[in-house]
């Protein structure tokens, strides 16, 4: 475990912490960090970077698409109610 002190510093139009080189020695480089704020503590943890499109296949495989198909039954009923066959209402009065 490495402990050190650092200060909040101005970085451009933002603020940030400078992380000492010794603290970064055992961490992966060029990786995204997850930040958790709990009370007066800030915790940073490296997370595996996953390209957004790489995760689509796993999300689709995990989805229960057959169960979701039943949810569209309400849409079928709404489409057959005939409201789409009626013309839109004509505005009355002055439009601004």
Rounded mean pLDDT is: 77
Please trace the helix and strand order, writing H or E for each element: EEHEEHHH
Strand order of the largest sheet: 1-2
By DSSP (H or I, 4+ residues per run), the number of helices equals: 4
Largest sheet: 2 strands, antiparallel
Low-confidence stretches: none
Strand content: 15-25%
Instruction: Indicate how many domains the architecture comprises.
Output: 2
Radius of gyration (CA) equals 27 Å
Question: Structural class from helices and strands?
Answer: alpha+beta
Question: How far apart lie the N and C ends?
Answer: 68 Å
Helix content: 10-25%
Please state the overall shape, judged from the principal axes of the Cα atoms. Answer: elongated
Walk me through this protein's architecture.
It is a single chain. This protein has 96 residues and is an alpha+beta fold. It has two domains: 8-47; 52-84, no CATH class. It is 24% helix and 23% strand. The protein has helices spanning 21-24, 56-62, 65-69, 73-79, and strands spanning 8-11, 14-17, 32-38, 41-47. The strands form two sheets. It has a two-stranded antiparallel sheet. The chain is elongated. The relative contact order is 0.07.
């Amino acid at each position: 475990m490495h402990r050190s002190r650092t200060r909040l510093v101005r970085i451009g139009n933002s603020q940030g912490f400078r992380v000492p080189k010794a603290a970064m020695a055992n961490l992966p480089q060029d990786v995204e960090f997850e930040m958790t704020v709990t009370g007066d503590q800030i915790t940073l943890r490296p997370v595996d970077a996953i390209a957004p499109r790489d995760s689509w296949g796993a999300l689709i495989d995990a989805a229960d698409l057959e169960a979701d198909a039943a949810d569209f039954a309400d849409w079928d009923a709404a489409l057959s109610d005939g409201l789409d066959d009626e013309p839109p209402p004509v505005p009355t009065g002055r439009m601004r």
